[in-house]
Amino acid sequence: MRRSTLARIVADVLAEDDIVICSLGSAGRAWREASAPNLTYFASDPMGMAPSLALGFALSRPDDRVVLIEGDGDLAMNLGVLAAIAGAAPPNLRMVVFANGRYETGGGQSLAGRLDLGAAARACGWERVESPPADADEAAVAAAVRRMYDAEGPAVVVQPVESEASPYPKAGRWSQADDKAVFQRRLAARDESGGRT
């Protein structure tokens, strides 16, 4: 499955008022290209911190569903966060891992060993883990994403995706600080207008 296909499947399942946190790298770029209407924060460096950010966000905003769009390389940089999330058990947190087995953006290096992030999540105490096989068709993956979405969190889908060339993009229009400020303003405006939109 291509990253763009998985991003579209996820976008089709999410409600417009869900808040999305994206890790740096190819998973986040696939989400940006999906043009989903969700209020989205695109995390930047340091690599591996997006899950911690999503956990903090979910805990601080219990009335909002928070969905983390994550790459397996990014998650591999901070595996301990799986235990932290399981321990905190925020019911409003969901995660979709785009698992290509590589640090795609950083040069395409393979992840060390045979990392099974679904098994790692289960070992850390996650009860709701979906791990469709690499050859699953779109309908099966969409069903897994829907089960993850409908379950009480924390819940995760770890979906194998094809390894695709993903050079690091040119610098964006704004700095990371500017992106953060825009996200915060949009979030505040949403809250002032009665919360969920």
Named CATH architecture: 3-Layer(aba) Sandwich
Average pLDDT figure: 88
The CATH superfamily is Thiamin diphosphate (ThDP)-binding fold, Pyr/PP domains
Strand order of the largest sheet: 2-1-3-4-8-7
- Percentage of residues in helical conformation: 40-55%
Percentage of residues in DSSP E strands? 15-25%
The CATH class is Alpha Beta
Q: What's the N-to-C terminus distance?
A: 32 Å
Number of DSSP helices? 8
Class inferred from helices and paired strands: alpha/beta
Unreliable segments of 5+ consecutive residues: none
The count of strands amounts to 8
Query: Nearest-angstrom radius of gyration?
Result: 16 Å
**What is the element string, with H for helices and E for strands?**
HEHEHEHHEEEHEHEH
Largest sheet, in brief, is:
6 strands, parallel
Layout of strands and helices, then pairs:
Blueprint: H1 3-13, E1 19-22, H2 26-34, E2 39-42, H3 50-60, E3 66-71, H4 72-76, H5 80-88, E4 93-99, E5 102-103, E6 109-110, H6 117-123, E7 128-130, H7 138-150, E8 155-160, H8 176-192
Parallel strand pairs: 1-2, 1-3, 3-4, 4-8, 7-8
Antiparallel strand pairs: 5-6
What does this structure look like?
This protein has 197 residues and is of the alpha/beta class. The chain has a single domain (3-192), classed as Thiamin diphosphate (ThDP)-binding fold, Pyr/PP domains (Rossmann fold, 3-Layer(aba) Sandwich). The protein is 42% helix and 17% strand. The chain has helices at 3-13, 26-34, 50-60, 72-76, 80-88, 117-123, 138-150, 176-192; strands at residues 19-22, 39-42, 66-71, 93-99, 102-103, 109-110, 128-130, 155-160. Strands 2-1-3-4-8-7 form a six-stranded parallel sheet, with helices on both faces. It has a two-stranded antiparallel sheet with strand order 5-6. β7, α7 and β8 (155-160) form a beta-alpha-beta unit. α1 packs across α2 (26-34). The protein is globular. The model has no long low-confidence stretch (mean pLDDT 88).
